[in-house]
Amino acid sequence: METKIIPYLLLPKDHTTYYYYDGSLTTPGCQETVMWYILTEKLSISEQQLNIFKSVGTNNGTLSFNHRPMQIVGKRAIYHHLDGYSAATIHFSNLVNVCFSFLLSKLLYFK
């Protein structure tokens, strides 16, 4: 039995406040061709949900690992969008949000 995932249902309610930056693919090639968006509202999942999520299959294996190690921010500009305010460059160090964006991008890749 095939299970369908509806990515929109995995998102938090607030879609108006987020971080964004130019980045790269996390799969081989790792081309610098991706604009990453990370919502600031955090969601929690149980350990059981995380284990199920990690077992999801893709063309490159399961989601239990990343094909590319975490990259340093370096001189990369990271912007914060807050509804009603202009974007401003910030220093972003919340790796949890970066990991969530990677996992979400994998879900959006599924057909």
Automatic annotation (TrEMBL):
Its EC number is 4.2.1.1. PROSITE patterns: ALPHA_CA_2 (PS51144). GO terms for molecular function: carbonate dehydratase activity; zinc ion binding. Keywords: Lyase, Metal-binding, Zinc. InterPro entries: CA_dom, CA_dom_sf, Carbonic_anhydrase_a-class. Pfam families: Carb_anhydrase. Residues 1-82 form the Alpha-carbonic anhydrase domain. SUPFAM superfamilies: Carbonic anhydrase. It catalyses: hydrogencarbonate + H(+) = CO2 + H2O. It is an enzyme of class 4 (lyase). Belongs to the alpha-carbonic anhydrase family. This is carbonic anhydrase. The lineage of its organism: Eukaryota, Metazoa, Ecdysozoa, Arthropoda, Hexapoda.
